[in-house]
Amino acid sequence: MDSLSEICSSASNCRDCDLHFSRKRVVCGAGPSEARIMIIGEAPGSAEDEKGIPFVGRSGKLLDSVLKSVGMQRDQIYITNSVKCRPKLGMTPKRNEIKTCAGYLEMELSAVSPMLVVPMGNSALTSLGFILKRKFDRISEIVGKVIETDGFFIFPQFHPAAILRNPKRKEYFQEYFKMAKELLDDLGDLSRDEIISKYRVARP
Ligand code: URA
């Protein structure tokens, strides 16, 4: 299995899709390899493209403040994106770009082996769908529902950019992270069957 630094150095030389034309820097995932939770965003924006670090722009500030408000520490979370390179101004990554980049996310999942994965928004769900060979409903249908897989639980959440566009949703965003924190704590204390019954987990 590749280490996170090996995965990052291979992503840094990647030219497998057109996004390498528009990037300044490849934005690798960040956080501890022993993190119990992985958060997956969509794609780097301009601040991330400049710095080479995920979630350091406006969406990142919102994410940081909400994580803090529910008692989660960013330095204990592994944070990454469905694609590692910035799409052209304001664009969402295309399906084939997400598919091409999903190999990196798959390697990150095996290197970190989180108990809980929080995909924020549809691009992150699409990427997980490629890796797990299943099709997820849209985020608005499954936000806040716990989904079981062989290796980890999935807890879909809105993308912070959607909250910045529609601040009325901020309290839901915070509420869902509160649930994610409780679920993460329970994953350390309860059996798989207890988790499944407490959170009414959707079985595939
Ligand atoms: N939005 C994302 O999805 N990822 C980032 O890293 C920044 C903004």
Helix content: 40-55%
How many individual β-strands?
5
Supply Rg.
Answer: 16 Å
Ends distance: 27 Å
CATH-level-4 superfamily name: Uracil-DNA glycosylase-like domain
User: Order of strands across the widest beta sheet?
Assistant: 2-1-3-5-4
Provide an overview of this structure:
- The longest helix is centred in the last third of the chain and has 20 residues, at 170-189.
- The protein contains ten helices and five strands, in the order ααβααβαβααββααα.
- Helix content is 48%, strand content 9%.
- The mean pLDDT is 96.
- The protein has one domain: Uracil-DNA glycosylase-like domain (Uracil-DNA Glycosylase, subunit E, 3-Layer(aba) Sandwich), CATH 3.40.470.10.
- Strands 2-1-3-5-4 form a five-stranded mixed β-sheet, with helices on both faces.
- The protein is of the alpha/beta class.
- It binds uracil.
